Amino acid sequence: MNKASRAVILFISQGAYAGRSPIAPGTAGTVVGVLFYLGIRGLSPGHYLAVCILVILAGMWAAGHAEIILGRKDSPSIVIDEIAGFLTAMFMVPPGWFFVFSGFLLFRVFDILKPWPLRRLEGLHGGPGVMLDDVGAGVYTNIVLQIAALLISR
User: Fold this and answer.
1) What is the pLDDT of residue 27?
2) pLDDT beyond 80 at 122
């Protein structure tokens, strides 16, 4: 693998290098996810979903290769999974800072605690093992946010 390919893989997998943060790289990656979300939140649901799928697929590819480059399974510096997870968390959630902040907190909690069956997904090989537990944490977060939105709207 040439130097340029390695640089692209690390740039993507480390969330524009947010994953190199010496303190809480996963949280730094989630902040990048928030910024990415703020940039795409106005898209139609179909286009937003397409971006999510693209980020997840690109993340699987980059994370799998980054594990090889970094010589470590699911290195803490790989944060594309947090970005994809946060984007998943915010899919079709009502706009507003309450939901962004709540989504950030809930996503971090689900990502750290990894309730069933998310922890089992980490055992998958390569990129899917890196990505799918965080996408699952995003799904759990989305469900809680959708319920909150429903309750608030009553």
Assistant:
1) 97
2) no
User: What tokens does 12 get?
Assistant: 């993507």
Q: Which residue from 119, 121, 139, 140 is spatially nearest to 129, judged by alpha carbons? A: 121
Q: How far apart are the first and last CA of the chain?
A: 56
* Farthest-apart Cα atoms in the chain, separation: 56
Per-domain residue ranges of the chain = 3-153
In tens, the pLDDT along 42-85 reads: 999 999 999 999 999 999 999 999 999 999 888 999 999 999 99
Does pLDDT of 104 surpass 80?
yes
Buried b (16+ CB within 10 A) or exposed e, 133-149: bbbbbbebbbebbeebb
pLDDT tops 90 at residue 11:
yes
The two tokens of residue 83 are: 């970005």
Of 99, 83, 98, 96, nearest to 135 by C-alpha is 83
Distance CA 90, CA 100 (A): 8
CB 51 within 8 A of CB 87: yes
Residues 90 and 127: their CA atoms lie apart, in Å, by 22
Nearest CA to 109 out of 73, 77, 74, 145 is that of 145
